[in-house]
Design brief:
homodimer; 359 residues; alpha/beta; Rossmann fold; 2 domains; six-stranded parallel beta sheet; 12 helices; 12 strands; globular; disordered C terminus
Chain lengths: 359, 359
Amino acid sequence: MLGRRRRLAILAEAHFSPLDAKTAVGVLRYRADQVAAVIDSTRAGTTAEECAGVGGSVPVVADVAAAAACGADGLLIGIAPQGGELPAAWRAAVLDALERGWDVLSGLHVFLGDDPELAALAAARGGRLLDVRRPPVLRSVAAARASRVEALVVMTVGSDCNVGKMTAALEIARELERLGVRAAFVATGQTGILIADSGAAVDAIPADFVAGAIESLVLEAARDAQVVVVEGQGALHHPGYSGVTLALLHGACPRALVLCHAARRGHIRTASDAPREPPIPPLADLALAYEGAASWVHPAAVVGVALNTLGLEAAAARSACEAAGRELSLPATDPVRFGARPLAEAVRQQLGRTDAPHA
Amino acid sequence: MLGRRRRLAILAEAHFSPLDAKTAVGVLRYRADQVAAVIDSTRAGTTAEECAGVGGSVPVVADVAAAAACGADGLLIGIAPQGGELPAAWRAAVLDALERGWDVLSGLHVFLGDDPELAALAAARGGRLLDVRRPPVLRSVAAARASRVEALVVMTVGSDCNVGKMTAALEIARELERLGVRAAFVATGQTGILIADSGAAVDAIPADFVAGAIESLVLEAARDAQVVVVEGQGALHHPGYSGVTLALLHGACPRALVLCHAARRGHIRTASDAPREPPIPPLADLALAYEGAASWVHPAAVVGVALNTLGLEAAAARSACEAAGRELSLPATDPVRFGARPLAEAVRQQLGRTDAPHA
């Protein structure tokens, strides 16, 4: 992971649940073989599977020392709080890990490498502070260059943050490979980068260069792939993150979109002092908004729905997928629960079409 | 300017024309009393008015030494190239200014203060490197808090970059003051910041926090003003900058929009290796796109058109404004050439309405 194989301790103190510990859950789902333990003293003695539904028998332990006893040799900050600061209580764990000479991997907006105390300790003990959100030095302004690639570019877009856009993109790319299609996953957030060992955390890039960064990643990925599956970010209807969403849409120039939604969510999550919880529009309206916004630069069509049915019974989850599919007359599935095959098939059907599907 | 009055030399080497030297022209139009000279060796011996149509008799000179002879005691980098790097040829001028102990003001994406040689020279000679694009340390995620302010929030939006959004906002705010309305101008780009002595260069802020930054500025400006006029950035149809545009729209939550367009421009300007020059949609389509995008978070209506008629004869300019007004059934003017009164009146008519005008 990020340069070499490790046995990671994932720090998720007091937050190790599927909704709170997005990075922890993503890494456990796709890189469990590189995880030695999860640190959450409030859940110590359980397993990852019991707490988060992923990660099998990976133990949950109380602190860095206990994780070391499980064979860990690196620390990963496993949550991404709004605003991105390092919770004060977690600093002790980072210091402990650095004392042991471990590398510390972080997706926070605040860069651990810029903290003089942490940097000095890392240097003294031989560990490294790997800030995966640190923006690339290269800066370019997008100019719809990704609209020219021969590969089919697909992007996952959503009704809100944290609804499953990264997971849907990973599952679709995997399923395309199973169908014999050369697919590349392009990571745009810290968890995706940790899983893919490449990508760019676009939300930390100076705003003028976000579209340019994803454009470069798509151009590179398209060289060897028939399909490039780009992890979307944010949501067009989110008051804080919509700019990132649109920059990705116009930088990547996807031809096909997969609409992601959490089945039980009715409102967009904003800060607790926000004037109101904005309602999530109907899926059909969301699809029109995304297709409309894409068309300002390059036409795209929604080709399927990825529904995150976490918290629903199996029967209710199946009904929810069927209802979403009916609403948009498109394939709909929960790619984690029921597999991504319908979405991969829908994407494969677009292959070879050189014009935009509905344009 | 930025803390104290200065007599500035504006560096615009080989680029001192109305379209190339956006920052130089903006500062000359609104702060000419603080400009001692413009440096452009290719136009030395002329005046600002002759080169750029603003700035009256401010002399254009060949180098920093000549500007010093005109009484300059500070250097302002007067252009903002795509990508934001300091042109190599300009470095000598910056070094010369620092040798003299001057402050150097820069709106470039690359921070002069981070350059060890420049920083050392500034420190040795007692000058300062003022990077107006350096992002604020405070980081917040927007949550439509600006939708609650009592003041009427107006934003200028456009068909492309560099069509007159800052100028329109400044002229509307000025004209509102003349009409007896307490108006505040909120700067969002480096030139606006130099003119207003406050604001944030939103395009240099990490993408997650752009909407939050403008939200904070609007909340602050709304305390003392009846109308807050926000300088828009970029364009929803620009492949490189649309994300910044949408972040501003959703962070500021304007209720009224003024659509800005350059009368002679038919295509969006992108890099020379771009696959195509995207055509600018008809004004009516642009208005619908902006109102639609705003409505995802907070409804807004276009209330007027600011047409930049640079390069047109007076009669053609008047016809262009009339045609734009007819197309949208709204007041239209070139605020620089014909005054901003019709736009200020249109904004004033919205005062006191608590719901969105067309929502």
